[in-house]
Design a protein that fits this description.
The protein is mainly beta and 270 residues long. The chain is built from one helix and 19 strands.
Length: 270
């Protein structure tokens, strides 16, 4: 089933690693319905968020509103809809997942990017634009543009694979001296070592023989739009550093692996 999670209020948390077989878990709570579902999986390639919603559907039924059509939904009446040409270009961040969508121009075309995937935005004759063939959002994903209003920053509203999402424009961030981020980082939980190295005038995250360029995103965050062998292959990762000036570690997150802490360390012979 694919769900439009808009009829009930919920909070959720996902965490896991893929290395050594891995594990993943999901906790979702529906406070007004007094329902909580916890899913624990001993496989790194499992999908506990979907399993948790399948269980919740047994109790909540129509409140989750399964969508058996194309995974999308008409946005209906959204206030203050804007034209994408008038929206600021740059990074838009999901407050829920920490993921980024990038709004950019390519000649006279407006495109949406997530990780290494790009798609042209095409108006389907309404206020909802379609990101055709955009695999991160799914086929026929709808995107609405909400300009700044009433003290709120510009944001995008997406409807994809049955899930509505909000992405808020992030302020520009200049990380400054990149050399302060270069070093070796270790996750005690996942027992994985990553390196951050200087690369082509910027930074890259190194996992064994794999190197993924890092690009500055929101304040204190870099995005790794590529594939790493050990943690969540195929997903785009976000590395969040402290904004107090100290570079002693980062928090590594993907849609299915949130909040994994890496500590800066000195490794003999590294």
């Amino acid at each position: 089933m694919r769900y439009l999670r808009i009829e009930v209020r919920f909070v959720d948390h996902t965490i896991g690693v893929v290395v050594n077989g891995g594990y993943r878990s999901q906790l979702v709570r529906f406070p007004e319905q007094h329902l909580s579902v916890a899913v624990l999986c001993n496989r790194g390639d499992s999908r506990p968020p979907r399993l948790a919603l399948d269980v919740a559907e047994l109790y909540l039924g129509d409140l989750l509103k399964p969508d058996a059509s194309n995974g999308g939904r008409a946005l209906g009446a959204l206030p203050n809809l804007g034209e994408p040409q008038a929206m600021p270009l740059g990074a838009y961040r999901s407050p829920e997942s920490g993921e980024y969508l990038w709004l950019m121009r390519d000649g006279d075309k407006l495109k949406l990017q997530s990780g290494t995937d790009k798609a042209e935005l095409r108006p389907p004759g309404s206020d909802v634009y379609v990101a055709a063939g955009f695999s991160p959002l799914g086929a026929g994903a709808g995107v609405a543009f909400i300009p700044a209003h009433d003290g709120h920053a510009p944001h995008l509203v997406t409807y994809a694979a049955g899930y509505p999402g909000t992405f808020v424009l992030t302020p520009d961030w200049a990380p400054g001296d990149l050399s302060r981020f270069v070093g070796t980082y270790w996750s005690p939980e996942a027992r994985i070592r990553y390196k951050i190295v200087a690369h082509d005038g910027g930074l890259a995250l190194v996992d064994g023989a794999t190197m993924v360029p890092l690009r500055p995103a929101g304040v204190g965050e870099f995005e790794a739009p590529g594939v790493l062998a050990t943690l969540a292959p195929g997903f785009t990762a976000t590395l969040r550093f402290s904004t107090n000036g100290a570079v002693d570690g980062f928090v590594y997150s993907t849609p299915d692996n949130r909040g994994l802490k890496f500590q800066r360390r000195v490794v003999v012979g590294s």
